[in-house]
Structures are given as C-alpha cells and as structure tokens.
Records
---
Amino acid sequence: MTRHKKRLFGRSGLGVIAIGLPAAMFLLLSLGTPDFFSARNIANVNSQITALLIVALGQLIVALIGGIDISVGSVISLTSVVLASLSASVAVPVALILAALVGLGNGLGVAVFGVHPLIMTLASMIFVQGFALLIMSAAGGTVPPLLIALAKTNIAGLPAGFFWCVSALAIVAVLLHKTAFGLRLFAIGANAQSAALSGVGVRAPRLACYMLCSLAGAIAGVYLTGRIASGDPTMGEPFGLNSVTAIALGGVQLSGGVGSVIGVVLGTITLGLISNGMNLVGVSPFFSAALTGLLLLGAVSLQRRKAIGI
Amino acid sequence: MWKTLLCASVLTVVAALSGRPASAGDVELLPPGLMAPSTTEVVPAGKFKKDPPWTIGMSWPGVGNTWIVQTIQEIKYAGSHDPHVKEFRFVEANWQPAKQVADIEDLMTHKVDALIIAPIAIDLVKAQVNAAAAAGIPVIVFSPGGTFTNATVSVYGGGEAFGRTGGEFLKDKLHGKGTIWVFRGIAGSGEEIARYNGLKDAIKGADIKIGAEVYGDWNYAKGKQLCENLVASGQPVDGIWFSGADMTRACFDVFKEIGKPLVPMTGEANNGFLRAWKNAGADSVGPIFTPGLGPAMVRAAIALLEGQQMYKSYYSDPKPVTAANFAQYYRPDLNDAFWFPSTLPENMIMEMFKQ
C-alpha cells in the first residue's frame, strides 16, 4: 500500500485528523460555550485567522515542492514597518517589492546554490527581522487609512477578513489546480529527479515558489497592519512556525507533492479555534499553547515520519 | 469656653468629612509612595457603576520572567478575593501582537464588565481600546510611559521612571562626567524603549558619553557574553546602566572572574539581585517596578464598577532601593524570584518564595 492510498483524498493529503480535528473542536465549542456560535464571534475568528491563512497558503506552495519557509514571519514584520513608515502612495508597492526580493534570495539560495531550505530561510528570517527593527525600533507609525478600512470594514454584514480569505483561496486554488505551474509543483514535490528527467524545469518553479510565499507574507502583513492599525517590527514573529503548524495539521506533507488548499483552511481553522475556544472557555492561556503542541504532535504521530517529511 | 469651642470645631470638621461626597482620592490603588494620581482629571462617580457580580477580563502581553510570574499571581489573588467578582478571566498573548488583539476581541465577545489591558505596545491596542470604550466598557490600560488618552483609567510606571532612576544614579556617581555602557533589553519592546528613554532623559546635558550599547535581552547568559566581550575589548567604562538586573548580575560575575574592579552598575528591586549586590559589595541602585501594578489595575476596575470617582491616571515612581535603605527590602529568607514590594500576604509569600 502506498502512502498516498492511505489517505482519503489522494494527493490532497486530507485524512481523518485534518478533517476530524476542526470538526470536533467546532462541535465541542458550540456545545460548551454559548458565546462561540454568535455571529460576532464567528466574525472574530474569521478576522483572527485571515493573516495566518494567507501565510499558510504561501507555505503550502513551498511545501508542495518539498521546501519550507520560516522567514515569512519576518516578511510580515518588514511589511508592517514599511507600511507605517512610508507615504501611502508608495508603501504597498515598496513592501511587495521587498518581499519579492526576500523570496528571490531564498529561492536562489535553495534552488541555485543548494542550501537547505531551513538554513536558508532561517538566515533570511534573522536578516529581515533585523532590517525591520532598523526601520522602526518599536510599534508605532501611521498606517494609511485606506489599509485600515480594507482590513476592518464589514461588507454586507461580512467581515473584511472573509473577502481577503476568499480572494487568497481562489488565487492559490486556481494557481495550483488550473495552471501548468501548479501541476509542475506537484510533480517536483513528488519526485524532483524524475520530474527533471521528464523535461519539467525544476529551478525556475522552485524560485517562483519562494517568491510567492514571501509575497503571501507581505499580503498577510498588509492585512494585519490594517487590522491592528499600527506598525510593529516584531508583528510577524509567530507566523513562520504557525504557518508550518497549520499546513501540517491540514495534512500537507513537508516532504512535498501532497497537500491542498482545503487542508490549509482546515489546519488554520484548527489553530484559530484553539486560541479562540480556550479564551471563551476560560482555560489557562498556558494550557492553550501546550494543547497546540500536543495536537501537532498527535497529528504528525499518526503519520509515518518519512511521509511527513520531517 | 475653649473646650466648648474646640469640641464644636472638631464636630464640625467630622460632620463635614463624613458628609462629603466620595472623592477620587478615596480610591487607593497602592499604598502612598508606590502610586499616586498623576492628573486632576476624574472619571465621574457612577459613570460605570454596575450591580455585582461582575466579570472582569484582563489581556496580558506574555510570560517569560519571574517578575511577570509574580505579577500574574498578584493579579489573580486580587481578582479572586473580591466577593463581587464572579469571574476573573485572564488571557495571555505570548508576546504576539495579533494574538493580543484577538484576545481582547474574545474578552469582549465574552461580555466582560470591565477590561484591563497590559499591552505589548500601546500603539497596538488603540483600536481595541476605542472599540471597548465605544461599547461602554471601562478600560484600564497599563502604559510604561505616559497617559493613554482613550483609556478610562491609565496606570503607568516602570519604563521611563525606571530608566531615569538608573541614569540619575550614574550621573550622581560619576559627578556628571564619564563613559558608560548601556545594556538594553529585547529590541522592539515598548517597556525597553521607555526605560532607555528614561536613561537618555536623565543624562541629558551631562558630560556622560555612551561608549557601548548592546541588547542583552534581559537575559543572564546573553548579558554575560556581551559583558565579557566588552571587558575584553578594553573599552573604557566608568559605570554601567542596565535595563534589567539579570544582566547586572552577569556583569558582576564577569568583573569578578576577570578580577576587574567593579564600577557603579544599576540593577532593580529583585531579591536575587539584592543578594548578588550584597555578595559582590557593589555600588548599585534598585529602581522599583512593583508587581503591585497588576493588582492596582484590578482594584481600579472594581472601583469603577462600584461607581467610585477615580482619577484618569495613576503613576508609580517609588523611591529606589539604595545602600541606605537596602536592609528594609532584602529578604535572605526568600529565593531569588521575589520582587519588591509585593501585595501578597506574608503567608503566600513564604509559601511561594521560601528559600
């Protein structure tokens, strides 16, 4: 039996854990706390997971080729300080260009110079974080009002985060499933050598994946900065590892070739529900962090190490 | 005749005092000397009065050192010992700005009657404070340096006052002239920057030069490494300012190991530091950043819900631990994790911090 056949939905990576965990949490929280199922709280959860979902989608793209990018958190921080430091007209383009450059650096390191993705993105994470602190040493600055409105305005009763999520999901889903580029990513991730022997270019897609992941970090940074209405040089710190956790919970294999947009959504919701649910139930915040670790451990323990890729 | 007049006067004063309306001065968040109102502006009596029992929510930035652990204990003690507080809900953001925003939203969803926020950085929670204020929820905000305008009540301390105390100590010891090294905390932290600003403020105008400035992350191990490097570099130093005393203890050890005579170094009011100060025979000062700031915010929330009149802001800038008053503070019977002054009862202190 191949590792793919063990899964319910082939190369999507979706399995019992990925689907069952958020469903069980949703059910338990609905029954356990009256505030959970309120429209206000559902909107809160949506707003709270939006940035993580966007970053996790970027992480999915990198994971599909067997890579990992832990520098996305620093890209969020860099985006935040750029947005809060520069004038509104240039802030977003500059942030996106800087993010693309970070991704290009990561991609060159991994795809051209053969540096291990963990080491490459760890190095860029530290560099970019330092750069963000150089630009702005503490939280503050002025965020363009348009960005605040884009992150906080409700449309037809739905929070702005909902539209950010739907847009990001649509773009990544089309990219992965309706383009030749997406097909190449699955091929490279499943077996880069045979993909190359079959005439599939490997370097350029790998490079593109890291650039797309960094751009996802920048877009998440735009949303988050608008939502918090302030720049912060350390805003993105937890997102590097949280995005890896989210995709792992969603059944994405870090060894490459297996994963799905739906899985990322489920993994992100799981993480979001842990934090929101614990707050609503009134469980010790320290237990919440421990539970996240336990769930991740449980999720990966039920898969073979070789299949997970770690 | 005189006796009659005296009695009449006393009775008049007593009658006047007992009949006067409750004033903002009646609310004591911490004992005098530890905290005082810093404005004449008041929150009117009854503005947030609500029938008990109450649910009070508190958003805390994160954990990571013994001061925070003790402060959280003191907050929970204060929150659980008022019979009118039905539920005291405490959430912690793990130093993640996005999580702190989410935590505050979750507390509001839980329909708290009062909200207490100790922000990672003031700018990060402005929107949430405004939202809570718009919903009619009294918001008590801790700030390391200055009044937070949209909060119902601001409590501030540490930060600039802490840094200034150390800076003034060095200015005094160096007679306004010399070279100092500066050991900062974690880059980007609002509290850290406020402390540093306090130092700069204290030495402004003096002939004191900052010869070296490093980030020791408030950490003993990193502080020791940095201190070793600086001592090995041979850079001149007449005094050292520290943003936190774990780094001071590290530098005490480095100077001792190398055999270099100690220079004046700043610390803080922590039992472990006072022990190290005593053992090293150092020339130091311990700015006080009392864990009582946490319970003070809980008391402010309760006072607002009781409908008491309060001042808009309170400031904690107590006199530091010095060589002269050292004995009043140092507790050889307690371990290094104890911070001064505490609002916990003595039996709890002994239970938690006994050596």
---
Amino acid sequence: MTEHTAAQPSGVILATFPEHNGRPGVVYRNAGDSFLLVEFGDMVFDLTMSFRVLGLDDAIKRHRPEGLIEVIPALRSVLINYDSRVLPAKRLIEFVQAQYEELPPFHDLVVPSRIVELPIAFDDKWTREAIARYVQYQRADAPNIINGTNSEYAAMYNGLRDKEEFFEYIMATDWWNAALGFFPGLPFAYPLDPRRAVVIPKYNPTRHWTPAGTIGIAGPCLAIYPVESAGGYQIFAHTVPIYDPQQRNPAFRESPVLLRPGDRLRFRPRVTDEELEAMIQAVYDGTYQYVIDETATFDVGEYLRFLDSVREEAEAFRRHQAEAATRVPIP
Amino acid sequence: MLEVRNGGFETTVQDYPGRIGMLSLGFAPAGPMDDYAFRFANVLVGNPPGAAGLEITAGGLVVAFHDERAFAVCGADMAARLNGQPVVLWRSYRARPGDVLEFDYLQGAGFRTYLAVSGGIDVPPVLGSRSTYLPGSVGGLDGRKLQAGDRLPLGEPRVDLGQVIDRRVRADLIPGYAGYNEVWEVEATRGPQADPDYMTREDMDAFFSHHWKLDAASNRTGYRLDIYKWQWARTSGGAGGGHPSNIIDNGYPVGAVNVCGDQPIILCIDGPTLGGFICNAVVAKAAMWKLGQMVPGWSYIHFKEVSLEEAIELLARQDASISEENLERS
C-alpha cells in the first residue's frame, strides 16, 4: 500500500493513493464528523467505474467493521456514514483501501441486472408547468428555457438537430442505474451506449418545485423524481411512479422503492399525456403491470467489447457535442 | 393517548436519531431539527433521549391528555399553557386526564419547540424509525403533519411519574438563541469539495467570514443562503456539467453546505442524499441543533471553522451533557 498523505494546506484531503496496475487512484476527503467521501479515478464520465464501486460496496458490507453505519455508492465514489468515536477516520481509510485493493478483476463479471421498461411522455404538461413556475417565480431569463421547455436547449447543447432527435437519443439507449438517492428511490442512471451519451449543465439557481414522475438529465446522468421536490436537472419528460409509500401496486409489495442499483432502465413506449395519466391511475388502483425482466444479467466483458467496437463513433459524437456546447450559454 | 385539537403550523412526530442507514435508498434520516432540546425533553420525563416526541414548528398546537403523564417542553418560547397556566420551558410537569396543553405562536427568538410525554409517542416504526419524513410521506402519523382529530398512541412509561415531574434542566445548559436579524455561530468542517481543487482560498475565506442570510424559502430539507459570486478554482464542472459547481453526482453528508451554482444551501435532516453539486463544508453534528432554532427570512449564519477532531470533541461533550445528572428538582 503506497500511501501519499497529501500535504494540502486546507486539510480537506485526508489521503490519496495513486493509480496502480490499472486500478484507478483513490482520494479520501473529509466530509465532517460522521462521513467520509472516497473518490475513484478522475472526474470523467466512465461507466465501468460503477462496476468497481458496486463491487467495493458489496465487499465493505461483507466485512463491515464496528462503527460503520452505511455505504452510499455513486458512479465514481462512495460516501461512508460512520461513528467517528468508535471507528477513527484513519482506521476507516485503511479498511476501505484494503478492501479496494483486494477487489477481483471486473472484466469477467456477469452481474444480475434487471431490465425495467418505463413508458415516457416528452415535454408533457407536468414538466411544462414546473418550467412555467420557475420562469414566473425564480428566473425569467434562464438560457436553458426555450419556448417553455428545456428540451430545445438540451438539443442545442449537444449539437442535435432538434428536440425530436434529443428524444430519440433518450429512447435509443439503455440507462444503467448506478445509485439511488437524492429522495427515496430516485435512480442515478447513465447511458450504456456512449454514442447517445448526452450531457447538459444544471439549473442555476435550482428549481423550488418538480412534480413526482418527472424525468431530467444533468451532466451525463438521468434521474426520475420519485416525489415532489426541488431539483437542479433539466427536465423534459414524465413517467409512471417509481416510489409509493402506500405500496398500492404489486410492484411495490416488497419495498416502496421500485428500482435497485444495477438495474437497466429502458424508456418505451412513447405515450401521450392522456395515456400516461391513465397508466398512473392504474398504478394506484393496482392494475398497472410494470414491465420488468427480473432474471436478466449483465455481462461486463461483453459490454467492454461493445465499448471497443463503437469507440470511434462515440469519440466523434463527443467531439461534435463539445464543439456545439461552446456556442451555447450555460445557466 | 394524546388527542390533537389543533395541529398548528407544522407539527410532526420525530424520534432521534431518525431513520439511520437508509441514505443509500434515498431516505434522509429525518428526526428533530433541534435534537438538543428534543433529547433533553425526553430525559426530563424519564424517556430514553431518542424516544418519539413532537416537533412543533412556529406554534399553534393544542393537545388534550387522556391519561396521567409527565410532559416537558424544550426549545423556542411559544407561551405554552396547561389549562391556562403558563408552562415553563426546560421543565417537567404532570398532566391529568382532560388537561389541555396549548401553544401560542413564537414569542421571540427560536423557531421550534419539542413536546416529550412519558412513554413516548407510540406510532408504528416505519423502516426502523417513528420519525416523520415529509418529502417521502413516511413515518409519524401516516407520513404527514398532525391535524385536528388525530389521536396519538402513547407508550408505557419506564419510571414512576412521581420521580420525573417537577424537574428542570440546569440553567447553564439551556442555550440562548440569537434573535431576529442576529447572527448564529455554526461550527463546520471544511470540505469535501473546497480549496484548493474546487474553490479558491479566497472563496473559503469569504465562506467562513461572511454573515449569511437565511432565506425565507428554507425548511427541513434545506436552508438556502444568499447568492454569492464565487471565484471557483475550476472554469467548468467538466463531465459533471458546465458550471464549476457541478460534479459527477456523489453522496451528500447530512448537514453539508451544498453550493448550487452561486447559492449555498445547508442540507438539513430531510434533505437530498445524493446529487451533483459540490459541498464545500459540513456543519458539525453537535451544531445541527442550531439550525432548528433559526428563523427563515430573519436569521444570519456565521460558519466557524473547526477541525475534524474538534467537531468530534464537541459531539462527545454535547452527548455527555444530555443526561439525568444535569437535571435539578424545581
């Protein structure tokens, strides 16, 4: 273990470990008296990091030391909630680093990964209302709002022809749910097809109100708002409930939260506001059937080969996207 | 049983430390905003410090007792009266069947007050806690704030009523609250995303010296502070998004100061658990109670930097102070 304790004057970084044998480097950050933030690799969008993070999450849970309360995984980090009086930060860092270094190679993994199909209505009435409220009460001159939507801005920012092409991109890829959080059951999902990986900056300032069921994107990450809440993502669509504390549909029988880390989300079919409204009603009266392939698996090696096969196309899209973004103001 | 005759502005059932270990599913812990007053109220009536009680925000609650209980009110002054007789804060009393406890609205500094009843509020635990988590509509009574007509079941008291009534918290342990337009000093640690890699040293100096106004649009999910023009150490958020406050989403510590674009927001105990903005500081756990007594739209906050070790020490001292030994006969 080659530790480089950082000589940072601010004291924010508690320890760093460099990249080693293809294993990404690690930075341990002070996150107060009850939390430790552990970051892997660089601040780049690399979906394969999620496989390592979920592996580490699992390893930490299996060897849980006394004083460790919870691990909160995200795409390239874990936040650890711990009792610093029982488990000092230094010992926690040593423990996490040891688990990380013992992780098996992830190329050979075939992991359980359900496929969850969700209906989608684009630029629906709920989304439009949230945006209209933002314009009226919070910021009238937000550059990310064009014709009462965020979708035109999203298309421009990614160099896409129009919002219809942006919608096609959303439906053309599966979305890997790397983590749950923000509010109960909210997925943080990333595009598995890098040729369709749109990127959008966030709201500034954030919205005070977003209706439950809203779909948004910020950075490369897609989220579904499970409850009415504040929010910072650009919003452009709506779907059926993914959280029901009253557990009124069989899909919520085991848990009020529909989705799990490692699920793949697939948006289909495209529906109208009226059709979606009927589906939402059917969820609550228990008759709606969620389309979930419970037994699907995800082959990491196969996925890595797929990434290789589309590398040039993905690179071309990224260049096109980056070039388009320079011509578009950020909020 | 405790009968609610008026739910007031916003009254909820809470326990301490709330719904722990569910951040990874997106459940914030909930619990009392001022856990110091809350825990002392419980200790006064002989409950475990974390037993379920009521959080009364701004005031207006009216409850009637249906059996004999000890009760205590700790926190902001809302001119509480038992059958019309003034109830002194930080002190335990006896209530008899038919007694009515009424809260007026805020009388001065502070924003929330806590009612503990011997035996605790015995609503069913949901996902491990009785705390009401309003954004997720779970816990407490049907996941919502209380309203007239609600009937709250009470648990079995642990000790004889005679032993726990007429006690008070030692005067030097009763905190003073900063008044309207006054400044609260709040201990906080630096990071996880601060200088030198996300913000400049000057940004952080400003953060720890500025008097931040608490916005009126603040609640248990977040405390919004003034817009500030940060220098930033980066020109963009890279893969996290265009603005330098953007990062690839990560878990948020409870009590973190989340900088969203230009606006810092303290993530409170009902706040988001994960997101894509930097957090430049985290409020010390021992200072979280102060948030509960600030008045949105009126209070100012000065963040006082403490080290990780100092924050842990503050917490140890606070936990030790909330005990039977620090009560006196009144």
